[in-house]
Amino acid sequence: MGRSQVIDLDGPVHYVDHGGEGRPLVLIHGLGGSHLNWMAVADALTAHHRVYALDLAGFGLTPLSGRRATLTRNRCLIDDFISGMGFDSPVTLAGNSMGGLLVMMQAAVAPETVAAAILVTPALPPVRPIKIDKYAVTRLALPILPFVGPAYVRRIRNAAPVAQQVDTMLDMLCVDSERLSDEIRAATLAMAQRRLHMEWAIPSFVAASRSIVWLLARRSRVRSIVYQIACPVLVIQGEQDVIVPPQAARWLQERRPDFVFEFFPDAGHVPQMETPAEFVAAVERFLSRISVPAGSEP
């Protein structure tokens, strides 16, 4: 499970040090997620990497502490984490959904810090034809509305028992959530229960949601980020993802055919949780084929 740690980066930042030997591999969760989203794969990845799972500001166990939960601010937090940990070489960054978008931003803005990037169903601009999943839209789109957003999230949070909400969320993220281990389910439920008592949880979710929509609506800005990335990139996309559909990854593939793409036919939005063995195999194939400077332990 790794060791829970806190580093001061203009406020406390929680992360889990999973240990391992070799290049630093920093894992970045998605919207509403946490370090727990990497539970199924982190230990396996330590075979060849020193693995860290980060909680962004406003998520998991990292409070806002005067910071904001926007993409720009959390991109800076990732940069500060890389610097603050004292790595003596660029790191491999992996991000899921919003985390994937943040990894792209970091690789574009601070290329000297990123040796390789792994984008797991990264948040990307919508591509026509848009397949609408009613539940995904109501849970992810309505929170961005001015004034309505925070109240809507609170109403949803209070509408059903936490365990039921977690089950519904996992069903949305996965093709078959029954494949998730009891350990992951229990940890996810415990985190959801803890976050009920964090006053910054809802504002963080709303702020991050709005920030994502604002950036993705500026398609030219996203293209600019995509074209600035110089490091080797692996994209892992679930073919049955209802949040970021596979045609979005194919949009990316058309613009960056030099990226490596792996489409998982039996996975949804969180392949690292749902198909962990296939995920680890894809990551190791990719990293074994590229030349990435070795990093030392901080």
List the helices and strands and how they pair.
Elements: E1 3-8, E2 12-19, E3 23-28, H1 39-45, E4 49-54, H2 71-84, E5 91-96, H3 98-109, E6 114-120, H4 134-140, H5 148-159, H6 162-173, H7 182-195, H8 201-216, H9 219-228, E7 233-238, H10 246-255, E8 260-264, H11 271-274, H12 276-289
Parallel strand pairs: 3-4, 3-5, 5-6, 6-7, 7-8
Antiparallel strand pairs: 1-2, 2-4
Helix pairs in contact: 1-12, 2-3, 3-9, 6-7
SS-derived structural category: alpha/beta
Task: Please state the CA-atom Rg, rounded to the nearest Å.
Answer: 18 Å
Give me the number of helical elements: 12
Strand content: 15-25%
Give unreliable regions as ranges.
293-298
Got a strand count? 8
CATH architecture: 3-Layer(aba) Sandwich
- The CATH class label is Alpha Beta
pLDDT average, as an integer? 90
Distance between the termini: 19 Å
**Shape by Cα distribution:** globular
- The CATH superfamily name is Alpha/Beta hydrolase fold, catalytic domain
Largest sheet geometry: 8 strands, mixed
Tell me the count of domains.
Answer: 1
CATH T-level fold name? Rossmann fold
Main sheet strand line-up: 1-2-4-3-5-6-7-8
How would you characterize the overall build of this protein?
With 298 residues, the chain is α/β, with parallel strands linked by helices. It has one domain: Alpha/Beta hydrolase fold, catalytic domain (Rossmann fold, 3-Layer(aba) Sandwich). 44% of the residues lie in helices and 17% in strands. It contains 12 helices and 8 strands. It has helices at 39-45, 71-84, 98-109, 134-140, 148-159, 162-173, 182-195, 201-216, 219-228, 246-255, 271-274, 276-289, and strands spanning 3-8, 12-19, 23-28, 49-54, 91-96, 114-120, 233-238, 260-264. Strand 5 (91-96), helix 3 (98-109) and strand 6 form a beta-alpha-beta unit. Helix 2 (71-84) packs across helix 3, helix 3 packs across helix 9 (219-228) and helix 6 (162-173) packs across helix 7 (182-195). The two termini are 19 Å apart. The model is unreliable at 293-298 (pLDDT under 50).
